[in-house]
Amino acid sequence: MLFRASALCMALISLPLAAALPTTTTDHSRMSLSSRDDTQCEAGKAFYVCNLNNFRGCCSVDPCALQDGCPDKPDNDDGDTKPTPGSCPKKGEKTRLFQPQMQTLILPDTDKPIPAQNFDLIKSNTTERQQIASWALPAEAKDCSVGWSIPEKRNFSAGHTARVSVHDNDDNERLGGADFSFWPETPGPRSNLVAAVDCKESVSLRLAMELNDQVFLEQNEETGWWVEYSC
User: Fold this and answer.
1) Which is nearest to 121 in space by CA: 92, 163, 152?
2) Which of 6, 41, 166, 223 is 20 to 30 Å apart from 147, CA to CA?
3) Are strands 119-123 and 190-196 parallel, antiparallel or unpaired?
4) Among the listed ranges 13-22, 99-108, 164-173, which one has the minimum average pLDDT value?
């Protein structure tokens, strides 16, 4: 009798705890999420990927059953979505500007870019996720080029055919390509030049997988895509 009472108490105690745990069950309105996506959200919000409205991002409520996606107002409610302008380095020196403004495009709907922070592409037979990376440069910028870098410690994953095409987002001209295959397994830091680009106050690239594969790189002040220039 004592054993049955103890078991009943344990079941009652564990019930609310189990109800509060997140689920990874896939249904028709959402996909399972990785823990790295959830860490990108501020307190009071969770990360969602929805099929109904193509929403992907942080939200204070479950947006997957809402036709228009997340009802939350963007953090920059003034409508200014331009990246923070870079400054000129000292004469004769170059500078690298990391942490571009990232936007995710879930094809075929390219009219609703979703704000992002990290480099995160995927292409398969059923879905494709591209991104736009943008920087604001000083008017005096010259000798401009773009590339990507990784330090010794990084959050980085890629398939073995993770080749990315790089296009100018304004005129769709192909600027070059970047191959991320096998680099997550290669120890040590690395810096890769991708292409020289025209120097202008707004540099915007469209990044897309060339083959069915995926790549993820957590970006910060020394990791990810950069633009290099002098003045």
Assistant:
1) 163
2) 41
3) unpaired
4) 13-22
Which residues on adjacent β-strands are paired with residue 85?
136
Domain ranges of the chain: 38-80, 83-230
For the full predicted model, state whether its pTM sits above 0.70. Answer: no
Q: Is the peptide bond before 83 cis (omega within 30 degrees of 0)?
A: no
d(CA 149, CA 130) in angstroms, rounded, equals: 20
Predicted local confidence at residue 73, as pLDDT: 63
The residue with greater pLDDT, 13 or 183, is: 183
DSSP 136-177: E--TT-EEEEEEEEE-SS--EEE-TT-EEEEEETTT--EEEE
Pick the CATH number of 83-230 from 2.60.120, 1.25.40, 3.30.1460, 3.40.1130: 2.60.120
Q: How far apart are CA 140 and CA 87, in angstroms?
A: 9
